[in-house]
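Why does residue order matter? Because the sequence determines the fold. Keep that principle in mind as you read this record.
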Amino acid sequence: MAKPAFKDAPLRSEIEDLAKQQDHHTVACWAAECAARVLYIFEKKTEDLRARDAINAGRGWIRGEIAMVDARKAAFAAHAAAREANNVAASAASRAAGHAAATAHVKEHAVHAAMYAVKAIFYNCPIEEQERRVLEERTWQYQNLLGGCNEHGERTS
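Structure:
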């Protein structure tokens, strides 16, 4: 059976517009949280740690503990893990982690982390739940885009 075509929620444009208005660290923190929310989808299919490492690298960059180039290397590794995944939902979850880490390099990667997180949810749930679950996740993303990070590089709101 062919995979269903991904259908995003109407909030996508609003999220992209709001993300453009935020500072680099805010969107990096938000991207890491978006990816962390779907990490379980990747990790239930594999013992590969590259997606988790990418999220941790993004958070490490936010805290000033690692250089941007190291976060970027972790992003590349998570994308390689996504290519190796044998499951479309797991692949999307690892791509979310990769883009979250890549946000340290380029702020605009944050919206891609959020989009891949939504794709992971879409492909991980039954067809009859896809539209509702995508809307719920996009609503969470929109509501949590504002705010800051704590000392661990995690959202405070």
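The helical segments are 12-20, 24-43, 50-62, 68-84, 88-102, 109-124, 130-143.
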